[in-house]
Amino acid sequence: MKYFWALLLISITILLFNSCGTKLDPYSNDFSGSEYFPLEIGNTWIYEIDSIVYDNKGTKIDTIKHIVKEFISETFEDNSGNTNYLIERYNKSATGWDISNVWAAYKNNKQAVRKEDNLIFIKMVFPVKKDVDWDGNAYFDSENTIISIAGEPIKMYEYWNYKYISTGTTEDIGANQYNDVATVEQVNYENSIEKRYSIEKYAKGTGLIYKNTVILNTQKIDQPNTPWEDKAEEGFILTQKLISFSKN
Q: Which of 10, 30, 175, 234 has its CA 20 to 30 A from that of 67?
């Protein structure tokens, strides 16, 4: 688990982890949209990840850039009969690619699931349609899961509720243009002391092409008009962009 957040200089400790079922429509026969979440052995994604980490009440700000490769190496069947695809994750170094950790993902007619270390996320549900929403963190207690960001405990997943806010759009990500993109808003909430925002964009036939996550806390309640980037005291901002995608 430590390797993913090591990309952000974040050491994460999962303090509470529960499991529960998803809330999906059992009567729907429309399973369209699984092309947004391609899973095949040999699929390879390379991402550029930029992050800003706030520490020491905002007096220390670290900016980090990483190149990460995800590669589907093999499959296995879990206890529920789902075919899981192992995702090997590598960090680019001066000498090549250094493996950091191994995640997994699967999809069925109803949903696409990704297992990132000790947490399981329902990344997409089918059909992919604008305004459809779901509990993407249904497999753990998102309100009480605490992580440590630069040594500070934060309830990162408070207020999360996933929703398709657009589908079928054209997006320019880096030097590439993608047609038929679906955007998932995972959270969009803020009050005087915390901001939670996260979106992911998926291109049909390619998968995840963009991610932006903002998890910030502050006690500067006397500065309501100050931008969060200037008043944040703890948390992080992450932007992830797809550089290339290839199939075996």
A: 234
Q: What is the DSSP letter of 205?
A: T
- End-to-end CA distance of the chain, in Å? 27
Taking the C-alpha atoms of residue 133 and residue 127, their distance in angstroms, rounded to an integer, is 11
Supply the pTM of this predicted model: 0.87
Ranges assigned E (strand) in the chain = 44-55, 60-77, 83-93, 96-107, 111-116, 119-125, 133-134, 147-149, 152-154, 162-173, 176-190, 194-203, 207-217, 234-246
Q: Report the amino acid identity of residue 99.
A: I
Indicate the class that CATH gives domain 2-246.
mainly beta
Report the alpha-carbon distance of residue 232 to residue 194 in Å, rounded: 9
Structure tokens at 61: 């700000």
Q: Which of 172, 170, 195, 166 is nearest to 180 (CA)?
A: 170
Only one residue has tokens 């996550």, namely: 213
Q: Give the Cα separation of 221 and 180 in Å (integer).
A: 41
Residue 230 sits at φ, ψ, to 5 deg, of: -95, -25
- DSSP for 109-132? SSEEEEEETTEEEEEEESS--TT-
